[in-house]
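To fix ideas at the outset, we first show an illustrative case, written as a sequence plus integers encoding its fold:
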Amino acid sequence: MKAKRPNKTHKENGVAAEKKLKRKEYERELDRLHGELVKLQEWVLAKRLRVCVVFEGRDGAGKGGTIKAITERVSPRVFRVVALPAPTEREKSQMYVQRYIRHLPSAGEVVIFDRSWYNRAGVERVMGFCTEEQAQKFLLAVPLVERAMVDSGIILLKYWLEVSPKEQTRRLESRINDARKIWKLSPMDLKSYSRWYDYSSARDEMFAATDTQFAPWYVANADDKKRVRLNIITHLLSYIPYQELPREKVKLPSRQKPHGYKEKEYPYKYVPEKF
């Protein structure tokens, strides 16, 4: 009997890539994980936990899609996504982390940062929006800020989504050619695309300064969008101990009697039914 071949299809950069995950298999596993995220949500509310999740990575790494996969079946009142625009002139005059601190979670909240204070260590540094002195001061200060967050009881998770040059190119080109995705492509994406190794150096220095025991970085291979979403959700669920809380069996109450109510003759403006 022949031995089964490993579930690999090709090699990229010397690392074997796994066979593409089938959509039905992906959706089945995602449905299961969504159920677990709802259980985690109820636990966070009941125990008044404060959870902060940071997503960083290169342009096109899939941060937005991963965040959407996490949040699409939970309450936005518990899972709150923060994606801040460029700072205003007033915010530029403040202490750098000030505008991020006000978005940190309160009791019973999971706050997800779609890019975070680490902008200073990445895009701001590489694209010249801050000085090298400001970047170095940030790298020295941020572990102290994160230590204070963790010591206050916040559960802090930091994810870096790593994408290969080839896959990043494919994704950015698809944004150019797909009317549904063109809004995702900013002038900054085009400028940063050519600075691959400057970003690599900035990432390396960021990890060296901020990958601490109390707030470590978790790196996820993001070349396969389906796998990275499942892997990150699974890791998130394993990182925060939770239990399924007991629920009372729900039964719909009886609907009231009309008691003489009759539908009014009103000229409603209906949406045309073209489908």
